[in-house]
Inverse folding.
Protein backbone atom coordinates (compact mmCIF):
# COMPACT_ATOMS: atom_id res chain seq x y z
CA UNK A 1 0.00 0.00 0.00
CA UNK A 2 1.18 3.53 -0.67
CA UNK A 3 -0.24 6.74 0.70
CA UNK A 4 0.99 9.75 -1.22
CA UNK A 5 0.20 13.40 -0.59
CA UNK A 6 1.56 16.80 0.25
CA UNK A 7 2.70 17.72 3.76
CA UNK A 8 -0.17 18.34 6.14
CA UNK A 9 -2.96 16.58 4.21
CA UNK A 10 -3.45 13.81 6.81
CA UNK A 11 -1.40 10.80 5.69
CA UNK A 12 -0.06 10.09 9.18
CA UNK A 13 -3.45 10.75 10.76
CA UNK A 14 -5.05 8.26 8.37
CA UNK A 15 -2.48 5.59 9.25
CA UNK A 16 -2.96 6.22 12.97
CA UNK A 17 -6.74 5.86 12.59
CA UNK A 18 -6.35 2.62 10.61
CA UNK A 19 -4.01 1.24 13.29
CA UNK A 20 -6.41 2.22 16.08
CA UNK A 21 -4.15 4.83 17.68
CA UNK A 22 -6.64 7.64 16.95
CA UNK A 23 -10.43 7.71 16.83
CA UNK A 24 -12.54 8.80 13.89
CA UNK A 25 -14.37 12.10 14.30
CA UNK A 26 -17.12 10.73 12.05
CA UNK A 27 -17.81 7.82 9.74
CA UNK A 28 -17.03 4.11 10.04
CA UNK A 29 -13.79 2.21 9.49
CA UNK A 30 -14.03 -1.51 8.78
CA UNK A 31 -10.90 -3.65 8.53
CA UNK A 32 -10.76 -7.33 7.57
CA UNK A 33 -7.39 -7.78 9.26
CA UNK A 34 -5.18 -6.12 11.85
CA UNK A 35 -3.19 -3.07 10.84
CA UNK A 36 0.17 -2.12 12.30
CA UNK A 37 1.73 1.32 12.38
CA UNK A 38 5.30 2.12 13.34
CA UNK A 39 5.86 5.87 13.46
CA UNK A 40 8.91 7.31 11.78
CA UNK A 41 10.73 8.55 14.87
CA UNK A 42 14.49 8.14 14.66
CA UNK A 43 15.88 5.81 17.30
CA UNK A 44 12.62 5.00 19.09
CA UNK A 45 12.63 1.34 18.05
CA UNK A 46 16.38 0.71 17.72
CA UNK A 47 16.41 -1.64 20.72
CA UNK A 48 13.50 -3.77 19.42
CA UNK A 49 13.02 -6.39 16.76
CA UNK A 50 10.48 -5.65 14.02
CA UNK A 51 8.12 -8.22 15.55
CA UNK A 52 8.37 -6.55 18.97
CA UNK A 53 7.78 -3.07 17.53
CA UNK A 54 4.65 -4.35 15.75
CA UNK A 55 3.55 -6.17 18.91
CA UNK A 56 3.39 -9.52 17.10
CA UNK A 57 6.38 -11.15 18.79
CA UNK A 58 4.41 -14.06 20.31
CA UNK A 59 2.79 -14.83 16.94
CA UNK A 60 6.20 -14.64 15.22
CA UNK A 61 7.76 -17.03 17.75
CA UNK A 62 4.90 -19.53 17.34
CA UNK A 63 5.17 -19.40 13.55
CA UNK A 64 8.95 -19.82 13.72
CA UNK A 65 8.58 -22.86 15.95
CA UNK A 66 6.11 -24.47 13.54
CA UNK A 67 8.45 -23.83 10.61
CA UNK A 68 11.51 -25.24 12.34
CA UNK A 69 9.72 -28.34 13.64
CA UNK A 70 8.21 -29.34 10.32
CA UNK A 71 10.32 -28.10 7.38
CA UNK A 72 9.08 -30.91 5.10
CA UNK A 73 5.44 -29.99 5.65
CA UNK A 74 6.20 -26.32 5.14
CA UNK A 75 7.94 -27.03 1.81
CA UNK A 76 5.07 -29.23 0.67
CA UNK A 77 2.61 -26.37 1.18
CA UNK A 78 4.92 -23.83 -0.43
CA UNK A 79 6.02 -21.97 2.69
CA UNK A 80 9.65 -20.88 2.95
CA UNK A 81 11.54 -22.84 5.58
CA UNK A 82 13.88 -19.97 6.36
CA UNK A 83 12.51 -16.46 6.66
Amino acid sequence: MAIIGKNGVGKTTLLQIIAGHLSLSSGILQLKTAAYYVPQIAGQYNHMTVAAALRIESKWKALSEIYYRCPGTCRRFGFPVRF
About this structure: DSSP finds four helices and no strands in the chain. The mean pLDDT is 79. Residues 70 and 76 are 10 Å apart (CA to CA). The two ends are 22 Å apart (CA to CA).
